[in-house]
Specification:
Two copies of one chain form a homodimer. By secondary structure, the first copy, chain A, is an all-alpha fold. Chain A is elongated and about 80 Å long. Chains A, B: InterPro entries: Ccc1_fam. Chains A, B: It is found in: Endomembrane system.
Chain lengths: 233, 233
């Protein structure tokens, strides 16, 4: 390999697990916090806020977890179906499929005899030929078969952990006002810290990341509070 | 082009807008329905269920909409940053970058003199060269600059529309029991219809799609109901 920068440090690609954690935690922190804050304005009793909050966390955990599971399963099914189709087409319409390989390479400047020979080299092995079409024509990457269940558990678990942070003051304290204040403080710290870490992991400015997640949480709570005040009681 | 099946009918790729609609509607139908059902078991009064439900819809709409906006913005920033990096590297380490192009084509069976000439053809135009690396090394597709705002509006709007379906009986009816029954019926029809349409759009079996979304909604409501019964009151 010719000299160059170390390959590992060059590009960041968020792993699927990090993405799942981010999705689950962000929504888990934001929505239960906003719901509890809105209900603090509309009703007085902490036990009811806790009931609504826990019900929301349970519903969100199952909906997002199962949703993530089915999305990952659908991706895997879709990949297999398209792969079978490409394999069949490479048998039924080999000239058409070779033409498509040529069209892709042509777009990047390969021409003439070199193009013809490169296409023949790729099409000389059916597995590689279909691999090429899957990646470069359809832009589909083979999904990890174990991903569906892991994705469900990660998103659902992150949602529960995230949701219990804003709800814990309502569980532990008797009065709604102080519980709301502590919940705001806990959630603000958690959102800012989470945004900071997420930005660092994806190579973006950490302060901007912290302010963005804080902004989303604040905006969601403010809108929920206004809606609950306008329609409630 | 050699003869083959009509290209348009061959492969389905969900447009970004369809994906946004699916994400917003699925969560919007499921979570407010489950929350309202759980609160129906724990508390008696419809006005409070409506307040909590509307607050949840508002919070979920803002959290998912803004979350979608920032995710799309982050994708666009990430693409531009990686593109600048690839351009710089093609200047600083041209041999390394050519080696990487060769490694990709080699994986698909291109060898020897044809490989060398194909790499030179791709590297002869810096724009195409960087395009090739972005697509085939980093697997990044240039994001649509207008997508962020549209994505936010689509996800948020779909969440509100989805959420108002299970909540409408509680708004329009006085008694909790009948409202819960009507809400179950409305939501079941909406979830099954939505799953059916989603499966048809993605080319999967429609009946399985309908049963899956129905299952997610039912499971989320059941778990939320159990949690609210266990901890509430």
């Amino acid at each position: 390999m010719p000299p160059g920068p170390p390959h590992e440090e060059r590009h960041f690609a968020a792993s699927a697990t990090v993405r799942d954690l981010v999705i689950g935690t962000a929504d888990g922190l934001t929505v239960p916090f906003a719901l509890a804050a809105a209900l603090s304005g509309a009703v007085a009793a902490n036990p009811l806020i806790v009931t609504a909050g826990l019900a929301e966390i349970a519903a969100g955990c199952v909906a997002m977890g199962l949703g993530g599971y089915l999305a990952a399963r659908t991706d895997a099914d879709h990949y297999q179906a398209e792969r079978r189709r490409e394999e069949e087409e490479s048998r039924l319409y080999p000239e058409r499929e070779k033409w498509e390989v040529a069209a892709i390479l042509h777009r990047y400047g390969v021409r003439g005899e070199v193009l013809r020979q490169a296409v023949e080299a790729i099409a000389s092995d059916r597995r590689r030929w279909v691999d090429f079409m899957m990646r470069f024509e359809l832009e589909l990457v083979e999904p990890d078969p174990h991903r569906a269940a892991r994705s469900a558990a990660t998103i659902g678990g992150a949602y529960v952990v995230g949701g219990l942070i804003p709800l814990s003051p309502y569980i532990l304290m008797a009065e709604t006002g102080p519980a709301l204040a502590v919940s705001c403080a806990f959630t603000a710290v958690a959102l800012a810290g989470f945004g900071w870490l997420k930005a660092r992991a994806t190579g973006l400015p950490p302060l901007r990341g912290a302010l963005q997640t804080l902004g989303i949480g604040g905006a969601a709570a403010a809108v929920a509070f206004l809606v609950a005040s306008a329609f409630g009681g």
